[in-house]
Structure formats: structure tokens, C-alpha cells
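We give its fold:
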Amino acid sequence: MGMCLPCLGGAADDVVVTPDPDTRRRQLAEAAEKRQKETAYRGVKNPEAVERKRKKNEETEKQAITTSVSGGGGGLKWQVG
């Protein structure tokens, strides 16, 4: 029985301390965000270019909506001549 006691002496050093719940929650959120980013750009060689193009399309759509609303004519233009 004396052979087992030396083995248990270093067991306290092997214990992994778990972080507090706030730190753990933050780590899990960061990991989830990273996974979502990776899956969103799977197979894309240049994700920055895709993001720029998406933002440009959104701006174009937003501008088209604001011009159609401010025009008030419903998009029809009459020509008299």
C-alpha cells in the first residue's frame, strides 16, 4: 500500500481550474462567432472582397429606395413632345 501514496502526492498539481462563468461565456461566444465566420466564407478565396461587394450592393439598394421614395412619381417619367 505504500507504493500508491507517492502517486497521489502530485494529483493536486494536475487539477485544471475552470474559469468563472463570465469568462467561460465570453470564450464560448468568441468560438461560436469564429465558427460562423468560417462557415460563411467556406470556399471563398477572398472574403474581404465578398464583404465589400455585399456592402456596396446594400448601399446601392438603400440609395435606390431613397430616390424612389423622394421622387414620388412611382418611377414613371412622361415625355411631352
Remarks:
- The CA atoms of residues 62 and 68 lie 10 Å apart.
- Residues 22-67 form one domain.
- The radius of gyration is 30 Å.
